[in-house]
Amino acid sequence: MKKILLFCVFNIIIGQTNQINKILISPKKNGISIYISSDIPLNESQVAGWYNESNSWYYMTIHNTKGDTEKLEQTKIYYPISGIEAVNTGESLQIGFMMDWTVEDFEFYFGGTSNELLVALRFPLENVLAAMEIESSI
User: CA 64, 117, 105: angle at the middle one, nearest 5?
Assistant: First the structure.
């Protein structure tokens, strides 16, 4: 009986599916910060990202996670993000961001026991400098 109980508890813990509750986008001078809120902490092995130069979409897949795609797609966006798309794909959630600027680099920052993931998208330096020059001439 103890083995069955232990097996059930193990399956519940290992089989937990995260729920993404909210996405917040914050523009910065050199890129975009994307805050992703989950019901339980995410870990590094769950998250993958890539930028597709041919269609200008930045994609992120969060394994063992689901989300209310309709709600997530209502996230307030800021330039240079021009669209957002969320898709539940079985046991993963894929979130796409249509970018008006090229994403040169990106990093994920995990909050440890925090339920937030910070995604930092960085733009090429020439784009940042050009935007700052335009801003200073206004």
Answer: 105
pTM score? 0.80
All residues at 6 or more sequence positions from 78 whose CB lies less than 8 Å from its CB, including other chains: 25, 26, 27, 32
Specify the DSSP element, H or E, that contains 110.
Answer: strand 105-110
Segment 14-59, tens digit of pLDDT: 456 789 999 999 998 889 999 999 999 888 999 999 999 999 999 9
User: For residue 36, what are its two tokens?
Assistant: 């992703």
Buried b (16+ CB within 10 A) or exposed e, 58-74: bbbbbbbbbbebeebbe
Asked if 81 and 23 touch (Cβ cutoff 8 Å), the reply is no
CA distance 27 to 50: 19
CA separation, residue 74 to residues 43, 78, 112 (Å): 25, 12, 27
Tell me which residue has tokens 């798309």: 85
